[in-house]
Each structure stands twice: as C-alpha cells, then as structure tokens.
Amino acid sequence: MGSRTYRAEAIVLKTNDFAEADRILVLFTRHFGKVRVVAKGIRRATSRMAGHAEPLTHATYQLARGRELDVLTGAEARAIYPDMRDDLALIAAGWYVAELVDRFTADRVPSAPLFDLLETALRALDAGIAAPVVCRWFDLHVLDRSGFRPELGVCAHCRAALGEQTNAWEPAVGGAMCASCAAKQSYVAPLTVRALKSLRYLLVSDLAAAARLRLDAPLTHELDRHLRAFLRYVLDRDISSTRLLDEVRDLPRPARVS
Ligand SMILES: [Zn+2]
C-alpha cells in the first residue's frame, strides 16, 4: 500500500460545482496527467482553499486517494496569472488552451511536454502577448505533440513541392494541398503564401519567437479558420470556448495600465 496522500503540481483545466458547497476540479498535473478531484466545502466563505480552486490556477495540490475521486486537502499557489485575468481577450484565450488540453488528454496519462506547453501559453498570456498569436502557436504545438502535426512542407495529398502561390488547406488529407490537387476538388479552402509561411514559422518557433510574428486582421482570420477546421476534423467536435473568443475578438481593447 502506498501513502494515502500525495502532492501534485497542477493547473486547473475546468471546474464543476455540485451538492451544496463542493466542486469537482479537473487538474492537469505535471507528473500524473489529468486527474479529477473533489474539493469539499470549497464554496463556503470560510474555505481556505477557495482561491486555488478556480480554472487556470497553477498550484501544488495536496490530495488524498479516494474510492472514486481523490480529495483535495491542501494547496499552495504557484501562479495565478493576475494580468491575464484582467483582460477578457486573454482569459478567453486561457480557457481555450485549457479546453484543448482537456480534449487532447485521457485521464491519468502523464504528459510533461503538454504540461510545459500549457504553462508556457498561460505565462505568455499573462505577459500580454496577443491572444491570437498564443492560440495559433498552441494549436500547432498541441497537434504536433499529440501526433497530429499538419503537413506544411509538401502537398499532403501527392507529396509534390508547394509552389509559391495560393495553395489549399485540406484537413481531411492532413494539411496543405498543392494547387494542382486542389484544382481536382470541388471545393477547398485557399491557403495564401503568407498564411503557409506563418504556419511553418509558428510550428518551428518557441513562443518568444512566435510573438514577433506580425498578424494583421486578414492573416489572423485565415490562420484561425484553417486551424479551427483542422482541430474540428481531428477532434470530431467544435471547441466550445471559441464562441467566447469570437465574441471578445472585436471588442475595443483597453490600454494596459502598469
Ligand atoms: Zn498535390
């Protein structure tokens, strides 16, 4: 028999309230993968741990093994990302990356690289890096680390080189498609040269380098459209937090106060 209690560094992916004052937390832990735990009495005003039971909190949690769900018994905050929480566009992006991690992981399958990816994205949002850059960088890297890297080097259909011209984007064949394959299809989404170059750059860059990418509105929309279609194809469902991202995207952004 191992110890009944253990500690786990984790980021809260989502929460669900139930009963009178309890909450289920879906934790993405650095070492044990995704774990569902119950926080008993967390919604009472007197709960010491309430501040650690919100989505996107990064903390070290103390947990006790339970029959069905493990039970939260203590927490020490590591990062609460205060600047991200002050900006609706950034927090919507935070929920989006957390939802993607939830969709791409099964319970209790450890994935430290994915944990690092999520932590990097949340830190970048908290540092004020534009939400579309962080989200598109995250899309490509979560796909890559999950075994679904889109083909950007050659035509995913015929393996021919992609010409310096508008090609096509076809999630069903695995990524970019050359103009001559595209001409044989009844409909494919056009992939502009600069969108292809941006996707290649984002895939090989770390987030600090990705943040130097200049995304104007048409390019932002094109990348968003292509990766959303790709993720929908891979996951066979929509990402629900994209609705909030769409709603906040066109709101005027308040100046950051420092
Ligand atoms: Zn082709």
Tell me what the structure shows.
The protein is an alpha+beta fold. It has helices spanning 82-85, 88-104, 112-126, 131-145, 179-183, 193-204, 207-210, 217-235, 242-249; strands spanning 5-18, 22-29, 33-39, 58-64, 70-79, 167-170, 175-177, 189-191. The strands form 2 sheets. Strands 1-2-3-5-4 form a 5-stranded mixed beta barrel. Strands 7-6-8 form a 3-stranded antiparallel sheet. β4 (58-64) and β5 form a beta hairpin. The chain is elongated and about 65 Å long. The relative contact order is 0.12. The mean pLDDT is 93. The structure holds zinc ion (ZN).
Span of the ends, CA to CA:
52 Å
CATH class category name of the largest domain? Mainly Alpha
Largest sheet: 5 strands, mixed, barrel
What hetero molecules are bound to the protein chains? zinc ion
- Number of DSSP E strands: 8
CATH superfamily of the largest domain: Recombination protein O, C-terminal domain
Question: What is the third-level CATH name, the topology of the largest domain?
Answer: de novo design (two linked rop proteins)
What are the segments in which pLDDT stays under 50 over at least 5 consecutive residues? none
Q: Report the total helices.
A: 9
Strand order of the largest sheet: 1-2-3-5-4
CATH architecture of the largest domain: Up-down Bundle
The rounded Rg comes to 20 Å
Give the % helix: 25-40%
Give the structural class.
alpha+beta
Mean pLDDT: 93
